[in-house]
Amino acid sequence: MKQFLLFTVLSFALVSCSGNGKQAEVAQDKTFELDNLMLLADQKINDTLTVVGYVTHTCKHSGKKCFIVGESQGISMQILAGGEIESFDAELVGSKLSVTGVIKEYHLSQEAIAEDEKSVQERIEGGESAESCAAEMSSIEEMRKWMEANNKDYYVIYYMEGLKFEKM
């Protein structure tokens, strides 16, 4: 649970697979800085485009995932390896990447959020300091505020199924 919540805190991302021949073609006007893409991600679901950001983390076990942030470093997105991407090397952390892929969304249910909150509360009751759990609790509160403001019974997480990337 903690790892799942941390994933949620770090990004608007998750998992899926799809593909068709047209997705490999990307026009120049479909290149976005991550901060700008997140402003209209809901309009770009299943679109193939290119996003530019800085790598903050790569999956150490398989290399099949990486996280990027934009210039503001306030928003991150998970990129899943696919297409020409076999894996993301740990040496990419700190690098600026241009990643082409397909934008996807995952809906995190109210029930899953409540389960995560319960898990955090149990850790606090088990002796973990409330300060160490503050970021997770803050994230849960932000998700609930977003759901209320957007009249949704789920929280949206955006991610990308990567097809190829280029180090800038």
Structural class: alpha/beta
CATH overall fold name = OB fold (Dihydrolipoamide Acetyltransferase, E2P)
Q: Summarize the main sheet.
A: 5 strands, mixed, barrel
How many DSSP E strands?
Answer: 6
Poorly predicted regions are 1-28
Task: Give the tags.
single chain, about 170 residues, alpha/beta, OB fold (Dihydrolipoamide Acetyltransferase, E2P), five-stranded mixed beta barrel, 4 helices, 6 strands, about 30% helix, globular, disordered N terminus
Explain this structure to me?
The chain is α/β, with parallel strands linked by helices and 168 residues long. The protein starts with a helix and ends with a strand. The chain has helices at 2-10, 34-39, 110-125, 134-149; strands at residues 31-33, 48-58, 65-69, 76-80, 96-109, 154-167. α3 runs antiparallel to α4 (134-149). The protein has one domain (2-109, 147-167): OB fold (Dihydrolipoamide Acetyltransferase, E2P), CATH 2.40.50. The radius of gyration is 16 Å and the shape is globular. The protein has 4 helices and 6 strands; from the N terminus they run αβαββββααβ. It has a 5-stranded mixed barrel with strand order 2-3-4-6-5.
